[in-house]
Amino acid sequence: AKTAKTASRAERRPRASLAREMLGYLEEQAKPCKTRDLAQFFRQKSKNVNYQYFVSRACKEKILWYTKDSLIARQALEWSHEKQAAIEDLAVRHLEQRAECRKQYGLCSELYREMGDQLPEIAPHLTWTPVLLHDLLGSGTRFTALGRQRDVFILTENPHHIATLDDLIFHTLLNDYGGTASRRAFITGLRKSGLMSKKTVTFLTGKDSRVIVEGNYIRIA
What we know:
Layout: H1 2-29, E1 33-34, H2 35-41, H3 51-58, E2 63-67, E3 70-73, H4 81-99, E4 106-107, H5 108-115, H6 130-139, E5 143-146, E6 152-155, H7 165-176, E7 180-182, H8 183-192, E8 211-214, E9 217-220
Antiparallel strand pairs: 1-3, 2-3, 4-6, 5-6, 7-9, 8-9
Helix pairs in contact: 5-6
C-alpha cells in the first residue's frame, strides 16, 4: 500500500508541474488558446493533456474555459470581486425570471442573449461568451455550474437540494412529468430545455437507484 501511495504521489508531481507551466503559458498569451494547439505545444512534455484536471483541480479558478474548445487565464480577463458580484446579481435576476416558468435552473446561453449588454467589461481585446460566463459563475460560491455543455447553473443553496445534473433531471422527471415518462419524450424534453445534448446522460440508463427504466419508459423508483 505504501508503494502504491508513493507511486501515486510521483505521478501527481509531473502533472502539477505541467499545470503550472500551462498556467504560465496562458497568462503570457493573455488570450484564448485552443485545446488542440495546447496539446500540440505540450505534446513533448506529456502524452495525455488532461484539461479537466488543470481547470478543476490543479489550477482551479486560475484557468477558465472560454469556449468549449479553448482555455484562458483568469488573469487575462482583468477580473475583480466587483465584476464577479455583478454577474452574480444578473444570474439571480435570470433565475427569478425562470422561476416564474417553474424552472429551477439557469442557462448561460439564455442569460447572455437576454442580458449580455449588462455584463461588466473584461479586457478590451476580449469578448464575452456563454461558456466563460458559466465558468466564472461556477468559480464563486453562490452558484454551481453543471454539465459538460457548460451552460446550466443553479443556486448552490436551493430548497430542492439539487447539487448535480442528475439531481436536476430527477427533479424535472418528478415535478414536470409526474414521476413517469416515455423515455423518448423525456429525452426530447431535456434536449429542448437545455439540460442534455445529443449524448444521453447516465441517469437515463437506469444506473441511478432513484429511477427505473423499463422498455421505453422511465419512472421514479
